[in-house]
Specification:
14 strands; four-stranded mixed β-sheet; six-stranded mixed β-sheet; alpha/beta; disordered C terminus
Length: 308
C-alpha cells in the first residue's frame, strides 16, 4: 500500500477538504483526487463522500473505519523507513550537562565527524536530574553528569576529574599565576549557580552571603557571553577557562584554596536493551582517547559501580 495515498486520505479526513489537503501536502488538487481514487480502488470501497455544492469532504462509514488503520499504517511505514536508515547508519544518543557539551565535547564530535564517522550521534544537553530520567526512559544510551544520583537501575561510574580554576578579565589581573580567595571581590564575580555541593560550599566559606556577585546564573552560554564583555572573574572548569582565554582574552590562574575537583560520571541503564553495543564501545574508545589527550583532565581510576 502506497504511503503517499495513505497520507492523502489522512489529510482529507483531517481538513475535510480536498483543496485544503492539497495545500497541506503541497500538491495539486488533481493529484489528491487521483491518489484518493487509487486508494479506494485498492480497498474496493468509497472512503470520502463529497456532495454536490458542498465545500466539505466527509468520511463514509468505511472511511471512518479505515481512518485509525491508516494512521497505524503510516506510522508503521515511517518505522520501516527509519529502520532502514538506522541499519545503514547506527545511532547513539548521548546526553551531558551544558558546560561539558559546549566547551569540551563539541571539539570531540566535530573531530569525529571530520574523520568520516558512519555512526550518527544525537547529542542532548540537559541538567543532571533530567539526564538520569532520559537514560532510565531509554531516550539516551549514555549520559555524563556532575552530580551522582544512586539508582539501582543505573550503572554509575566516575569518568574523569577536572580542576576548577580562576578566569579573570585582563583589567582584574593578579600578580603571579595563582590567586588566594581573599584577593577576590565577590562583587566582581560571575558566579555559576550550579547544584554542585563542593562549589557552593566554597563560595559560602570565602564570601559574605550579604554581598552579591556581579552576575549569578546557571547557564554557561550566558556567563560566557557576559564574561567576554565585562570586567569580572569566575570559578570555572579548566576546559571552559581554556575557551575564555582563547576567545575572550581572559587570564587563567590556579587557586591556592581551590574548590574540590569537578567529577564527571558516566551513566548507562542496566535494564534497557542496547540496539548497537558495538557503537557504545566505539564511542567509549573515542571519548576516552579524547579525555586522555587533554593535560588538564584526569581519567578516573576504575572503581566499583556506585549503582550497585
Amino acid at each position: 500500500m502506497d504511503l503517499a495515498n495513505i497520507e492523502v486520505f489522512l489529510a482529507i479526513a483531517r481538513t475535510r477538504s480536498i483543496s485544503k489537503a492539497a495545500k497541506t501536502l503541497f500538491v495539486s488538487q488533481s493529484t489528491v483526487s487521483y491518489r484518493l481514487k487509487l486508494l479506494e480502488e485498492e480497498l474496493d470501497c468509497k472512503l470520502i463522500e463529497r456532495g454536490r455544492g458542498q465545500n466539505q469532504s466527509l468520511l463514509t462509514k468505511e472511511g471512518e473505519t479505515f481512518f485509525p488503520i491508516a494512521e497505524r499504517l503510516k506510522n508503521i511505514q515511517y518505522d520501516i523507513v527509519s529502520f532502514k536508515e538506522v541499519s545503514r547508519h547506527p545511532v547513539i544518543s548521548i546526553g551531558c550537562v551544558e558546560s561539558m557539551g559546549l566547551y569540551l565535547l563539541d571539539e570531540l564530535y566535530n573531530d569525529v565527524i571530520r574523520r568520516g564517522n558512519r555512526v550518527k550521534m544525537h547529542f542532548l544537553l540537559n541538567n543532571n536530574e533530567r539526564l538520569f530520567d532520559m537514560v532510565e526512559g531509554g531516550q539516551l544510551d549514555i549520559a555524563y553528569v556532575m552530580e551522582p544520583l544512586r539508582q539501582k537501575s543505573m550503572s554509575l561510574t566516575p569518568f574523569f576529574t577536572e580542576q576548577m580554576i580562576l578566569a579573570a578579565s585582563p583589567e582584574l589581573s593578579f600578580p603571579g599565576n595563582s590567586v588566594h580567595p581573599s584577593q577576590l571581590d565577590i562583587r566582581d564575580a560571575c558566579q555559576f549557580d550550579w547544584k554542585e555541593q563542593g562549589l557552593n560550599l566554597w563560595y559560602e566559606h570565602w564570601f559574605n552571603p550579604k554581598e552579591l556577585p556581579y552576575l549569578k546564573t546557571n547557564s554557561p552560554p550566558l556567563a560566557f557571553s557576559f564574561m567576554k564583555k565585562h570586567e569580572c572573574w569566575a570559578i570555572v572548569p579548566h576546559s571552559m577557562g581554556t575557551r575564555l582565554e582563547k576567545e575572550a582574552g581572559m587570564k587563567l590562574y590556579t587557586l591556592k584554596e581551590s574548590p574540590p575537583e569537578r567529577i564527571c560520571y558516566r551513566v548507562t541503564s542496566k535494564t534497557n536493551y542496547q540496539l548497537y553495543p558495538e557503537v557504545i564501545q566505539y564511542w567509549d574508545r573515542e571519548v576516552s582517547r579524547f579525555i586522555r589527550s587533554k593535560p588538564w583532565l584526569t581519567m578516573a581510576a576504575e572503581e566499583k559501580d556506585e549503582g550497585d
